[in-house]
From TrEMBL:
InterPro entries: Epimerase_deHydtase, NAD(P)-bd_dom, NAD(P)-bd_dom_sf, UDP_G4E. GO terms for cellular component: cytosol. Keywords: Isomerase, NAD. Coiled coil: none annotated. This is UDP-glucose 4-epimerase GalE. One of its GO terms (biological process) is galactose metabolic process. Residues 151-349 form the NAD-dependent epimerase/dehydratase domain. It comes from Polytolypa hystricis (strain UAMH7299). SUPFAM superfamilies: NAD(P)-binding Rossmann-fold domains. Residues 53-134 form the NAD(P)-binding domain. One of its GO terms (molecular function) is UDP-glucose 4-epimerase activity. It comes from the Eukaryota.
Amino acid sequence: MDIVPHTRAPSSDADISAPISRSSTPQTSRSLLFDDIESEAPFYSSIQGDFVLVVGGLGYIGSHTSWELLKAGMNVIIIDNLSNSFKGVLDRLELLRSTHYRQQSDDVVPPVLHFYEADYRDRCAMRALLSKYNHQPGHLPGSPSSSSAIESAITGVIHFAAYKSVSESFQNPLAYYANNVGGMVDFCNLLGELNITTFVFSSSATVYGEFANKGGRLIEEYCDNRGCTGLTNPYGRTKWMCEAILDDLAVSDSRWSIIALRYFNPIGCDESGVLGEDPRDTPNNLMPVVVKVMTGELERLNVYGTDWNTADGTAIRDFIHVSDLARGHLAALTARNTLGQGFKKFNLGTGTGHSVQEIITSMERVSGKSIPVHKTGRREGDVAICIAEPSNSMRSLNWRTNKTLDDCCRDICRFLNLDVSAPQPPREESQKRGTISMGSRCARASGWSGPRSSSTLVCLEKSCGLFFSALFLFLLLLV
């Protein structure tokens, strides 16, 4: 049986002949929010059935999407170089999976999760790794058999491996073009050789550029692949270029089914409180900065621009709950059966805008905590308003959002183990089993005690059992 331990990179797997060269992970401190937890057991499973490959699957959106796939019963392969994520996220996915499927009927077969620490731009590593999932063992690309003869167990790929900071893209544009554009081109070349041609691309609302300032909701047709005008930053240009390349690929090769999902502003956490957002690098998005202020890692929140042409002077964005966004990827994979081949693009947003000040007010109201703010000038590349028109996604993908702004803030507080102003959804079953920590460890400097890890909960459950057993024996002796 082909055994894949989730805790080791594929370079330690004897079935992979090519070495996996690890990228240099930044030497940062351990995550305060993703402290390692003790999972029940590693996954060991044979490569059987179909898989969805999630590249960058331990990041914020990638991990939530991986969890939605697992909940839907799909086998998942995660590739991540840990450049902006923590390996402790894998343990949390494992914990969620095992707890969820333990509550199902005995005839439900849980999906499996494979993890490889690797850089998706390492072509030799990717070739060796992905070839393991061929239904023709031992066949390698470039052999006499044509690519059309290869049948892979990987039925779809979701690509989250792009760099994503607008401000950083101004400082180091070549790195963004190399990773986001060059990396994707090489990766798609390899996928085509292996006959893996269902591809979901994480795009961005930044492709609309200055169209956003015209007001109103943004529809997909405002940005096509015939011209690159009005883009305000290198990051947005990389996303536009990738969309144009993928469109050309789908036209030239009828095997490909490609969907680009244009994200607006994902916030929030999984409602379990087990998954959240805690990047290695310095965050630039609003909510992770808010979290770092609330946990004491940062003194205050910088609000960039209070003179925008909006009601309160702060920028307006379409904030979407990350779980709703993650379900959009599941909907995109499912829709390939009805949408067919070719390239298609969809907005993933709520269609409702909220200002930065509204976000701060909502978080303060839900958490009962004050968020210190420093008002400063606008950032280069920002726009005043950016709101999605989601009707095309709702119609074609059979997808819609369910979460409100307060839901987003409430789930973040649950991840931080803060009391919230509204009742939390009942979790009697998971609490009874003592397997899921309803939050993550916070900065001790903030004065919060922090949650128990799942391993602590399990230990408490066992300790209570031993105590009552001893008490029962003691009473018997007295009698």
